[in-house]
Design goal:
The protein is an alpha/beta fold. The chain is built from 21 helices and 17 strands.
Length: 633
């Protein structure tokens, strides 16, 4: 028996609410031709609105008029899952603003305003935009993020989409709020033989009938064959130069057809095949597909690595909860049901990081993406937030999670999306992932005009979070490496804004990093500007501010094999000597994501305890909304 795929861990959708199924549906027959809700389909669903649904809709309107009144009908319509008019209108307005240059004009105006009157206090913005619950009953909070939130998803492709892979993808999408799925698969078809099945025509029909925001397509398993060029009917040998060009054109034609109404498109690659010759041919189709998909502005998700081992060999089984299951069916081509669930889980994780899907399960938080025009940085800056479903009346505390050097705001979600989704919901936190530039060090530079990241976070990001998200106004901050140092500096510069700071493997003393080119560019030579370096150094700030109260709580963690272990140990001893409240924890590990993801739950639990303290939620005078200090440069 061959070994399992590289990613042997398997998470079923146990934490996602599955729709109730009948006793007949609970048993999956061995025949792939039996059709039910989760079984292969050759034809799409029926008309979008059946007569019975239309009649039901009339009665709903009558009842709404009777019980809600005309003034509340608009609200009721806006909450119907198929009523997407408002979202379309907002999208159209956003396009108009972008094309008209409205964002740039706003940016110039804010830059001029800030140059005339710099605002260093959070008080006015915090008071003006503090979260207000939607109603006294604690109704669901709707977060209007800038990322796409699909309401209709179209699944299309050949036999894999018709069988288990398509069925499991459909099941997965039903675990999200307000998502409708349309699935169409056709056995033995592809883009190489339009004489067998005209996919462009079928795609056009499906898209105009259902108007999806997201399309997931998979072709290629049947395309590793000779074909004829459409322009002159000339025969093309498989993998020849002419064949590669023609197949690339067909991929781009399919994308253009799917994109006609503005849908986002994700192509799934074909998994490795058991037959080595077929695997080589399918691999070639995958490479051509991936090239043209990415060149044409769509997304590509590879299934090859998920179904092969570390040496790239075909894998026939996988381990789930210490039990071995077949990854593929006996034909060595199609995925088995456990295999389809395994692959679907990876696809769902990828899609949750790229688009906004709100899980129905209270145990999971949704990832949202936002775009913020920054006057301090001179461009539109993105950030992400993990938002739980369960929001109390006063809102939730906010934890800023900062990335390290050479990274971006997507680092944490790329490496720990599942963790963050569960931890945010479990511990009642809004986890915000800001962008600090790969070498920005979360400071304001007098030499690099666009590197005013400290002011950006204090003056622009935090007020924007309070405006868009159900935030209580209580803040904590943590980060790794460069972000760990940034977290310490933010809490020490603003001890009444940030109640707690966590640091993972940080450079705690900038005077020991004077040879870093990025820091020299931002702060100048250390010998010429020691005061500026000390102003942004956690080591020096704790000495200068150790006598001030309140002091933020600090958690320091560092791997025992990290090159910065001694620096962090010295910082811990310095805090001890100054009587600074903190905790120091070490464990095996180096300066890598394996260590950072392993200590992330520890930091989240610790931050939750700090930020959910009774004195903070009750509005202790030390931390009251009106007590945020003026940030003095």
């Amino acid at each position: 028996m061959t070994t399992g795929p590289k990613k042997t861990g398997f998470r079923s959708f146990a934490d996602r609410p599955l729709p109730k199924r009948s006793k007949e549906q609970q048993h999956v027959p061995t025949s792939p031709w039996k059709k039910d809700k989760y079984r292969p389909v050759e034809k799409p669903a029926g008309p979008f609105v059946s007569p019975s649904r239309a009649l039901a809709g009339v009665w709903i309107v009558v009842l709404a008029l009777s019980f809600l009144g005309l003034d509340r009908i608009q609200v009721a319509l806006a909450e119907l899952p198929y009523f997407r008019g408002y979202g379309r209108l907002q999208t159209a307005l956003r396009v108009v603003r972008q094309e008209s240059g409205h964002g740039q004009i706003r940016l110039w105006r804010e830059t001029l305003s800030n140059s005339l009157h710099r605002v260093y206090s959070l008080d006015p913005l915090l008071e003006r935009k503090r979260y207000q619950p939607r109603d006294s009953a604690g109704g669901d909070v709707i977060v209007q993020s800038d990322g796409l939130r699909p309401n209709t998803v179209l699944l299309v492709g050949a036999s894999s989409m018709q069988f288990y892979l398509g069925a499991e993808l459909e099941r997965a999408f039903e675990t999200y709020e307000d998502v409708r799925v349309v699935r169409f698969g056709k056995l033995g078809t592809g883009l190489a033989r339009p004489d067998v099945f005209d996919w462009p025509a079928k795609l056009s029909e499906l898209i105009r009938a259902h108007d999806p925001e997201l399309i997931i397509a998979q072709f290629g398993g049947n395309d590793a064959q000779a074909m004829r060029r459409l322009s002159d009917n000339r025969a093309l040998t498989f993998a020849s130069g002419g064949w590669n060009i023609e197949y690339g054109r067909r991929i781009e034609q399919a994308i253009d057809t799917m994109r006609v109404l503005g849908a986002e498109i994700v192509f799934l690659g074909t998994p490795i095949m058991r037959d080595e010759g077929l695997a080589e041919r399918v691999g070639h189709v995958n490479r051509i597909t991936r090239k043209h998909v990415l060149q044409h502005g769509a997304r590509y998700f590879s299934l090859w690595e998920l179904t092969s081992d570390e040496e790239g060999n075909y894998v026939s089984s996988l381990t789930i909860d210490k039990r071995t299951h077949l990854l593929r069916l006996t034909d060595g081509i199609h995925l088995s049901r456990p295999g389809a669930r395994y692959v679907t889980d990876e696809i769902a994780t990828y899609l949750e990081k790229e688009y906004t899907f709100v899980p129905l399960a209270d145990s999971l938080a949704a990832r949202h993406k936002f775009e913020l025009p920054s006057a301090h940085r001179g461009f539109i800056t993105p950030y992400q937030a993990y938002v739980p479903r369960d929001i109390p009346q006063g809102g939730l505390p906010v934890l800023l999670l900062l990335h390290g050097a050479y990274g971006s705001y997507t680092d944490w979600s790329d490496h720990a999306h599942k963790q963050l989704s569960r931890l945010a919901a479990r511990h009642g936190l809004l986890i915000v992932l800001p962008d600090g530039d790969p070498h920005g060090w979360y400071l304001d530079s007098p030499y690099v005009e666009e590197n005013q990241i400290a002011s950006y976070i204090m003056d622009e990001l935090l007020p924007d979070v309070l405006e868009r998200l159900p935030a209580s106004g209580v803040f904590g901050v943590t980060g790794l490496s460069m972000g760990g140092h940034g977290a310490l500096v933010f809490a020490l510069h603003h001890p009444t804004v940030f109640h707690a700071a966590g640091s993972m493997s940080a450079v705690t003393d900038l005077s020991e990093a004077t040879d870093r080119e990025a820091l020299v560019e931002l702060l100048g030579s250390y010998n010429e500007n020691p005061g500026l370096w000390h102003h942004w150094s956690a080591w020096h700030l704790v000495g200068d501010r150790g006598r001030y109260k309140p002091k933020p709580s600090i958690l320091l963690t560092c791997g025992e094999d990290d090159s910065r272990f001694e620096m962090n140990l010295s910082f811990h001893r310095r805090l001890d000597g100054l009587g600074f409240p903190h905790q120091w924890r070490t464990s095996p590990g180096g300066h890598d994501w394996q260590y950072w993801t392993s200590v992330l739950p520890e930091h989240i639990v610790w931050q939750s305890r700090q930020l959910h303290g009774d004195e903070l939620i009750a509005g202790d005078k030390r931390w009251g909304m009106k007590s945020h200090p003026v940030f003095e440069k």
